[in-house]
Write a structure and sequence with these properties.
About 35% of the residues lie in helices and about 15% in strands. The chain is globular. Strands 4-3-2-1-5-8-7-6 form an 8-stranded mixed β-sheet, sandwiched between helices. Strands 9-10 form a two-stranded antiparallel ribbon. By secondary structure, it is of the alpha+beta class. Helix 3 packs across helix 6. The chain has one domain: 3-Layer(aba) Sandwich (L-fuculose-1-phosphate Aldolase), CATH 3.40.225.
């Protein structure tokens, strides 16, 4: 069987898609028949998962082949109805050879809440993911839905789909899938950190050091392209990309925070032992007690 440009035969790519499907299903990223996976075969053809088949139980013979317009060329099962979403990414990014769409629960929670993914928190996320936009909601399956990712595809490798899930992509299928793991793990850490009380952010200088490392490793970032894009804080994916621009609610970047050189937290949030906070609590307590006494 002929080798394709990515070094694998078509059958080997189908086997890999089934393996990635099992990972997605076993990690709870796609319940029942949710999710879909595609791989670029060549400039004109793509492999895609079938509709109404669990990603955890696919076999190579279940995989379909489609052309650049989504027309099914081969496969005994019907192709996924969301293949056009994947093709929107491929059309914008000739360097992309694998795309994964699924519903990882922690990342999807951010998509449902329309909560922008904060940056300047974890080194690995800064280097491997970068900024993560939220695409506007459209009913899944149609071209309007597929078009929602077009504004962001050139400047990101991971996109939240409002009230839906995630789409991640990379130079090969495994890298595309790893971006799904990274974004869900990151969102889980953010949620747990918020439950503990606060999130400490890197300073801009600390983030610039990470971005310099990212550039040396050959990764791209939307912040490399325009000096007006904020290093930390507000998203670079503003109204220049789409009118739907969610504002942060749970993870507001209100004041500079970071991790000091001595390892101590630098935070705009008052410390539990802050005298000013103790004075405020005491004053509120005394006022409550006076109100109770006068009742």
């Amino acid at each position: 069987m002929a080798q394709l440009h990515n070094g694998k035969t078509e059958y080997e790519l189908k086997e890999q898609m089934c393996e990635i499907g099992r990972r997605i299903y076993n990690r709870g990223f796609a319940a029942a028949n949710d999710g879909n996976i595609t791989v670029r075969l060549n400039e004109r053809e793509y492999l895609c998962t079938p509709t109404m088949v669990s990603k955890g139980y696919m076999k190579p013979e279940d995989i379909c082949r489609v052309d650049a317009k989504g027309v099914q060329l081969a496969g005994k099962r019907k192709r996924t109805s969301e293949v056009m979403l994947h093709l929107s990414v491929y059309n914008q990014r000739p360097d992309i050879n694998g795309v994964v769409h699924c519903h990882p629960p922690h990342a999807t929670a951010f998509a449902v809440a329309h909560e922008p993914i904060p940056k300047c928190v974890l080194p690995e996320v800064e280097v491997f993911l970068g900024e993560v936009p939220i695409a506007v909601y459209e009913t899944p399956g149609g071209q309007s839905f597929a078009d929602t990712v077009i504004p962001f595809a050139k400047d990101a490798n991971t996109i939240l789909l409002a009230n839906h899930g995630t789409i991640t992509f990379g130079p090969d299928l495994e890298n595309a899938y790893f971006n799904t793991e990274i974004i869900d793990a990151y969102c889980r850490i953010l949620i747990l950190s918020r439950q503990l009380g606060r999130v400490n952010y890197f300073t801009e200088q600390q983030t610039k050091e990470l971005l310099a490392l990212k550039k040396r490793l050959g990764y791209d970032d939307v912040r490399f392209r325009d000096e007006s894009n904020p290093i930390c804080g507000e998203s670079s994916f503003d109204r220049r990309y789409q009118k739907f621009t969610p504002r942060p609610y749970a993870f507001r970047f209100d004041e500079p925070t970071g991790v000091g050189q001595d390892g101590q937290s630098i935070s705009g949030v008052p410390d539990a032992e802050d005298p000013a906070l103790e004075t405020l609590v005491r004053a509120i307590t005394e006022q409550v007690m006076r109100n109770l006494a006068g009742a």
